[in-house]
Known about the structure:
- It comes from Obba rivulosa.
- The structure is a single chain.
- By secondary structure, this protein is of the alpha+beta class.
- It has one domain (about 30-190).
- It has helices spanning about 35-40, 125-135, 150-165, 170-180, and strands at about 30, 45-50, 55, 60-65, 65-70, 80-85, 95-105, 110-115, 140, 180-185, 190, 200.
- Helix 3 runs antiparallel to helix 4 (about 170-180).
- The longest helix has 14 residues, at about 150-165.
- It is globular.
Amino acid sequence: MTFARSVPLTIGSSSNVLVEDIIQINSPHWDARDTVNHLLDKTITEFNVVVDRSLARPRFGDKVNHWRLFLRESPSAERFIVVEVLKTSGTDVISRVHVNYFQYRLDYRDVVIHFQLRLAQREFTVKHFLDSIKNSGFHRYMYTAGGEGCRFWTNTVVQKFEDDGLLASGSQERLNGYIQYLWHSWDNYERKRIAEGKFY
């Protein structure tokens, strides 16, 4: 495979790892940690949206949540495939789509809310979801000048997954019941305009 330029690829803390058949998504917009064959071929049976606890931003005088997608092979699996969009630095607006695979508890103290979106069927793999992002160009994304954008990216990607038949009809509508708000806790939230980043 060919990248747009030479970039480092981190495979966690592993050694003697054979990396092959990684989805090519115009590096450096894609950070595929542990994204090897055994991960891409995993069948997904559970799709979660996870919202991290609100953090204060003194520079902007507000608070923000971070929104992520947690894919799981089964309800009892302890490890998740986590897909999220992150800025490349604290001051840059250019982002990368990060894919990680690690053990996690959805009741972790930094998670303010989490909810499931229903899959359209049960034959989809991680690769189907990553291909949907790649083919739509949603891996090339810029945060706003104010440093926000993960809500808009999540909202856009979920709509694409529904359009592509990966998520069941009504998934976007269910997401809309949550994504319009800034979440401080499950029972403490306030409406906040979704800051729209840009795809390029």
